[in-house]
Amino acid sequence: MATTDVSERPSKRLSAPATKRVLPGFGLSLGISLFFISLVLLLPISGLFIRAAGMGWEQFWFVITDPRVVASYKVTALAALAASLFNCVFGLLMAWVLVRYEFPGKRLLDAIMDLPFALPTAVAGITLATLFAENGWYGQYLADLGIEVAFTPLGIVVAMAFTSVPFVVRTVQPVLEEMAPEDEEAAMSLGASDMTVFRKILFPTLWPAVVTGGALSFARSLGEYGAVIFIAGNSPYISEVISLMIFVRLEEYDFPAASAIAAVVMTVSLLLLLAINVWQGRYLKRLHGG
Amino acid sequence: MAVRKHRRVGDNPLVRRTLIGIAVGLTVLLLFMPLVLIFVQAFAEGWAGYVSNILNEYTLHAIGLTLVVALLTVPLNMVFGVFLAWLVTRFRFPGRKLLTTLIDIPFAVSPVVAGLLFLLLYGSNGWVGQWLGEYDIQLMFSWPGIVMVTVFVTCPFVARELIPLMQQQGREEEEAGVVLGASGWQLFRRVTFPNIRWALLYGVILTNARAVGEFGAVSVVSGNIRGETNTLPLQVELLYQDYNTVGAFAASSLLAGIALITLVVKAIVEWRQSRN
Q: Which residues cross the membrane (chain B) (predicted)?
């Protein structure tokens, strides 16, 4: 999760400037950090790109534009979009209720918001599949309404929405907590309606946080695998996600194809991560009047 | 606080009750019920059935392997996380921002891609894998590979918990320690550690939760050999695909238990920090 430096502003320091390193351990911590990051992160990642680059442009293009793979891009992107839109609304509601109101059980409600991060994805997957199966707790009632979730693309949306619940809640919550009440109270005392004040005063402050949380939720959903495969049905062209596609190519021992698709996914993930970090940096600066 | 005279958005009792009602209702459906289902299914054959499912030879082996993976991964990532947090919050140097972005990569990468990265490098056809093969060392499709991908996917957690806190605390206290003649280790043990121990605990607990629960990345490098390279989440998948639903949920209940402990620790840590 891309938490950004809040206390970036130069503070009034009484001690020596940072260029004269007072504290010990710069060399040691730099060495350990660089060694670890190179070995664990950079080496494997560059290995993937070198592998993908080595296969030749034509073959690379052929593999990543295979119709079944293209179908899986679409399924993944659309399901992730739907899941993150749901989470924007749900997350905003939860953050609002948890910050603005007092009611019994609030602590418990707040604590359980993080369940999707703590629960292993495979466990989430079989649980959701069982809940939404035809004879499941939810599935039987949804079947009466003619809605099928398990083994359809809708199931993918449910799984992605579940695993990324905490993002929007946890990005909006602190913003709501820090919000000064003066403008809101002034507008209310001048007789503006709740809806107008929310739209004109609260929402302009809240939406950057909602977008950040939504983007994090989208990024997470794009790569989701464990929770999805149990409920998706995994039929080619209809309900295969991109991570599963890579897995399928691996099981066919088609390493070049798996690497090529993975290189595409990795590039998109890295660009998304960069975009979120840049966006967060800007909006935090504005928020703290920097 | 004195009685608030000013009205704020959503103060209307009807609006308040409706919003709380929807929020609680959705949370029960989306988060509570799945948790309940896990335990209902796990105990569907009674207590004795539950125990015999847990004591299944392969499930026991999976529990053991999962513990070994967590025991190797968590301390490694804890040490790395503390050093990285110390580095980026206590010193200014070119590339500092880049370093904090790099550390987020495992969060952004699909677990299957993460597994593939290691398979490509250390598998029998990979650069390193080929070379190791000459010495009869096999990392993939055995436990070292599982540990390696788990280290990858869990490396950001400790640093991510510590960095915002240590930045907020600033370095004045430590600088005072240096002036008073403390050594590096004394400084960490006496000044830094007491300030960060709760966040560190939560980072470690999160690392552990993800380490025991990682599925996608582990499933790429494990080879799924029953009784050999199956971790607990992989065992859950295997039992579920064997139509042994109760067995799968019994194994899941252990992982759900760890998840619940994680949530409790988080609540305690937040309570502690709000008191300070």
A: 20-43, 63-86, 98-121, 141-159, 199-225, 245-269
What CA–CA distances, in Å, run from B81 to A35, A244, B111, B166, B194?
Answer: 13, 31, 20, 12, 16
Does the structure's ipTM exceed the value 0.85?
A: yes
Interface of B with A in 48-77 (CB under 8 A): none
Using alpha carbons, select from B6, B10, B31, B32 the residue that is nearest to residue B20: B10
Tell me, yes or no, whether B2 lies in a domain. Answer: no
Same-domain status, B24 and B67: no
Contact residues, B window 157-186, toward A, CB-based 8 Å cutoff: 160, 163-164, 167-168, 170-172, 174-175, 178, 183-184
pLDDT tens digit sequence for B161-193 = 999 999 988 888 999 998 898 888 899 999 999
Residues B14 and B68 in one domain: no
Whether residue B171 lies inside any domain: the answer is: yes
B153-169 pLDDT per residue, tens: 999 999 999 999 999 88
B22 and B72 share one domain: no
Domain assignment present for residue B3? The answer is no
**Strand locations in chain B, DSSP E?**
none
Range of the domain at A105: 46-287
- The C-alpha atoms of residue B174 and residue B218 are separated, in whole angstroms, by 40
Domain that holds residue B185: 46-275
Task: Please name the member of B30, B86, B100 whose beta carbon is closest to the beta carbon of A29.
Answer: B86
